[in-house]
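// run 5 | inverse folding | seed 20
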């Protein structure tokens, strides 16, 4: 206003004028939602930061709350896709021992295939999942998170109560502590709006919940991999062993949340624990792979050593010391020593070896010269008439 009209307007006066002109978005009164027992449950996720093991990570906290009793169930996941959503909701339904008629969610693509709010279309696999448990997914309108305020408010409670001062060794320990917290604290604390604990209100709501199906199908995802030449399949950046008779074969993987089942021609050939949140790990089951031949071959002594030893104790000791000085198994030096033994007479050969051993001489060219001197002195009368 100074540039256009030459007038200095204090900041407080400027904000008052803006409020009077209603240039800001006007807030609407939302009222209060009242739910009957078994009418509704609410589900959502939120990213939380904490230390797992010795590493600080960001994980997805999934939560489900019964709208009437406020009974809560939470679990943590490294990522949250439709697979993890089905795993969580299955565990949550078991925890609640039933389901409400509808489950209010947001408009994320984890469950919603397209659209939003009343026009949203639920992904077919998630709609079938809800039908199995007897409930329907209901996305709320865009920018209306208060519609599922029962679950939204719980995330602040979880971050500032459950996570504070706790230590977690791994994902299993994390979710075990989360379950214990739900049972012994979150659902046992009196809610002012209820006038009782969620657990007490749940006892009133439980008869109105839809019963769980007689058979709850396991949650798993099928994928296919080809076994590499080292006898492993690559899955989620980690490598899992497979019997080596399946090298180069295509196998079927049944991905459960906590384990992997590997099948070939409908027969289970291997099972492994999933390496949740880990990268670049190699998991090998004993018995899947035989020892490579080259590993056992070079552990045996060279054939030349067997041909040299057992003739004379001095020669045996010379062979032992020669191997210590030679690189590797000493096969090349032993082969040359065996050649000298076969070329020259035994007596001068052993005499030269005895002298070489006494003075620590392991140069085989020098040893041959010493053998020649022994041969010249013993077998030839050089210089005599």
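// decoded
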């Amino acid at each position: 206003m100074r540039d256009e009209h030459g007038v200095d307007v204090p900041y407080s006066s400027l904000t008052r004028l803006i409020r009077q002109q209603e240039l800001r978005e006007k807030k609407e009164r939302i009222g209060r939602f009242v739910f009957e027992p078994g009418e509704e449950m609410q589900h959502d996720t939120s990213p939380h930061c904490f230390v797992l093991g010795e590493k600080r990570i960001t994980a997805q906290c999934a939560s489900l709350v019964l709208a009437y009793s406020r009974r809560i169930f939470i679990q943590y996941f490294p990522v949250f896709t439709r697979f993890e959503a089905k795993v969580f909701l299955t565990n949550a339904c078991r925890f609640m021992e039933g389901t409400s008629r509808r489950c209010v969610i947001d408009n994320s693509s984890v469950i919603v295939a397209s659209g939003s709010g009343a026009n949203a279309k639920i992904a077919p696999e998630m709609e079938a999942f809800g039908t199995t448990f007897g409930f329907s997914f209901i996305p709320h309108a865009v920018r209306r998170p208060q519609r599922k305020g029962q679950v939204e408010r719980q995330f602040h409670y979880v971050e500032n109560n459950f996570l504070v001062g706790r230590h977690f060794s791994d994902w299993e320990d994390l979710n075990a502590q989360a379950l214990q917290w739900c049972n012994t604290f979150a659902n046992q604390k009196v809610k002012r709006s209820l006038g009782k604990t969620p657990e007490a209100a749940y006892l009133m709501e439980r008869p109105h919940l839809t019963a769980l199906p007689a058979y709850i199908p396991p949650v798993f995802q099928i994928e296919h991999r080809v076994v590499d030449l080292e006898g492993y399949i690559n899955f989620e950046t980690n490598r899992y062993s497979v019997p080596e008779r399946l090298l180069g074969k295509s196998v079927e993987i049944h991905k459960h949340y906590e384990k992997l089942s590997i099948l070939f021609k409908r027969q289970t050939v291997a099972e492994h624990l999933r390496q949740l949140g880990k990268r670049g790990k190699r998991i090998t089951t004993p018995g899947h792979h035989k020892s490579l031949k080259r590993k056992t071959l070079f552990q045996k002594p060279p054939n030349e050593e067997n041909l040299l030893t057992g003739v004379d104790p001095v020669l045996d000791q010379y062979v032992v010391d020669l191997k210590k000085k030679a690189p590797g198994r000493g096969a090349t030096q032993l082969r040359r020593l065996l050649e000298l033994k076969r070329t020259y007479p035994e007596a001068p050969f052993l005499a030269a070896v005895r002298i070489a051993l006494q003075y620590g001489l392991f140069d085989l060219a020098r040893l041959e010269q010493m053998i020649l001197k022994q041969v010249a002195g013993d077998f030839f009368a050089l210089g005599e008439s």
